[in-house]
Amino acid sequence: MNARVQRRPRRRLVWLLCCLPAMAAAQQFQFNLDRLAAKASETVDVSLDGSTLQFAAKFLDSKDPDQSKVRKLIAGLEGIYVKSFEFDKKGEWTAADLDGIRNQLKAPDWSKIVGVKSTDGEISEIYLRKQNGKLTGVAILAAEAKELTVVNIVGPIDLDSLAELGGHFHIPPMDMAKPDAAKQK
Amino acid sequence: MKSALSRQAPPADFAARVLRRTERPVYRFPRWLAAAAAVIVLAGAGMGYRQYRGEMAKEQLLEAFKIASVKVNRIQTQVQGVGQ
Asked: Among A45, A62, A117, A151, which would you mutate to test the B interface (most chain B Cβ atoms within 10 Å of its Cβ)?
């Protein structure tokens, strides 16, 4: 009886150790934006862990050039988490919502590589997470007057290749002449 | 009269003939066939559900990449615009 009681903590420890890789690969920061869902006219909430990503990859059409690019991009990924809100009117999200996320994206784990704030209040930021010199995650914050998007890509990803997809999926590439009003933070 | 009413032994195949008449021709579904059908139905349902889950995951994946790629593309464009 006593032997069994003593074994339980060991079993729990073994179980916990087995789960550690899976736990480590989970979302790298908390979005904490659930309160905005009630105000949003449209909400996108995507939460794909590593196993689901690889499972989804099996259903990508290799004949479709866009989908085959996606397949290459997700090869080493361990998760993608996206939360995007669209609002009918301005001012639904606050600076505190962004600060709550920014506070988690701090050195030494995270480094901000891009921060753009335009005169019309549009905010765009990209953060990279590196461990032992290797890219292990990307965070994207994009806030417009009526839209707020947060993305966490867990694992190494080539941002240039990701940006190239912007011209695919029937999405027109961005107009290069537009951002006159933008200024880097 | 006595001899007419006396007990007589039935013919040798009497019991067999009676039993043959009482037996109704019932078709019995083979058990192995029922088990095989159940396995096929369950496997089909499982594959269908797997396909459904896969398609849902794929749609989510493409949606996530669509959003992420548009945002990164936009940020890169803004940065290039600032550089120019």
From this structure: A151
